[in-house]
Amino acid sequence: MTQLSNSHYRTAFENASDAIFIHDPEDGHILEANETSELLTGYSRSELLSMTVAGISPARTPFSLDQALRRIRRATEQGGYTFEWTIQPRGGDELPVEVNLKLITVEGRGLVLALFRDIRERKLYEERLIAREAHFRRLIQHSSDGIAIVLPNGRLRYVSPSVSTVLGYDERRATGRNVLDYIHPSDIERIRRLLRREGSQCPDADVAHHVTYRILHRDGGWRHHEATVKDLVRASEMEGILVNYRDVTERVEAERKARERERELEHVARCRSMGELASALAHELNQPFAAIGNYIGGCIHRLESGRFDPGETLTALREVNAQAERAGRIMSSILNFTRRNDPQRQQVDVNAMVRDVASFIDLKAERSDARVEYRFSATPVGTVADPILIEQVILNIAFNGIEAMAGTEPGRRILRIATDRLPRAVRISIEDNGHGLPRMNPDQIFDAFYTTKKEGLGIGLALCRTIVDSHAGHMWATSGATGTVFHVALPVAKEEGHA
User: Fold this and answer.
1) Same domain for 243 and 265?
2) Residue 101 and residue 320: Cα distance in Å, rounded?
3) Alpha-carbon distance 334 to 324, whole Å?
4) Do residue 412 and residue 493 come from a single domain?
5) For the chain, what is the domain count?
6) Each residue of 291-337: pLDDT tens digit?
7) CA–CA separation, 276 and 469 (whole Å)
8) What is this structure's pTM?
9) What is the per-residue DSSP string for 8-37?
């Protein structure tokens, strides 16, 4: 193997990309310097060889000769040492450098070899990174969203500073605690299962899952959160489950209040419908009560006159019982329809819902010199719905149709109600022979407070569409032969769809 000559080493020394100095470890004098040193400092080699380390450093703490000698001596003791320093080039700004000191022996004498590397760009990137980190930290700290890294057992490895804004806890005290200790008892098992599944490296581990839960605020109240959960247990930089969470308590409360207002409007609409039929219902109830009175009066008369006949009396009492049951059914229908109940979804036949309100529709039609024609699907058409709410929709549309025919000749006032089965839905169609749709976008008639009635509030059709939408259904209007056809489509019940 060919040995390199001294000239080769000198060439490598002069052309090195780093500035190279050789120092006297006793007093810090520069004994040798390469060409890169001249470019870095702005001093010639002859000038550098007459200077100490302090001569190329800023005249301020901590860049004094004493500090430089301490580092040089440390390098002689340890055999090597790397640190950051600042030099002062001639006629230029201060320059950050990385210094690597190594102990070398030249002709039996211990010297220190110093490699100076310009780290201006690196420092600039570091400053930008620190500034960006501080910027994002401020954003996260004052954000309504939060970030957490959770272990599969629920323990927090990291929580963003915004936890103090979102939940009132200090981020340092929160780290290391178990998040399950703060989850609402009704949600804790569901969250525990989710964390275990995410941490088990299941096939869908890379898929983000969305979850809602309630969590305890430091003030003692329960807050509603929405979160996106993703398994990053295998990611070396995370080693946990990443949770991006958001406080949605205000939205949840607003939705709850909106639902309460809708229920109030639904109840008002049902009571108003019954109010419109008050006289007709009174007449309808008067018939069974009058019959009951007649039968009981007859029985009393026979008993008082001594013409008691057990067979006739039994027949009369059976008629009394039948008329009482008839009155009870009418009252029960009214009470069920006007009662303020929480929504209850169940599988129900659309034909049955139409039949349940048919008596009310017939009463309204009779008072308006109109006739109602029903055309039911030959087979049951099932859906999952709250029957009271859907019956209210049917009743509202039917009443509107009857009122829309006020200007139609009495003999032509016909309301047609039909049920049928679409490919993926069941449909109720209600057609009138009234004045037809207004000359405008048909969807506008469903806007809140739109009405064509002088005494109307404009909440009927808007409320109907809201109810249908809440059932994942659709409501629309089309022009009929002479009037308007309203359609209500509801999803087919799953059991029926599978069949």
Assistant:
1) no
2) 115
3) 15
4) yes
5) 4
6) 677 767 777 877 777 777 777 778 777 877 776 776 666 666 556 65
7) 26
8) 0.42
9) HHHHHHHT-SSEEEEE-TTT-BEEEE-HHH
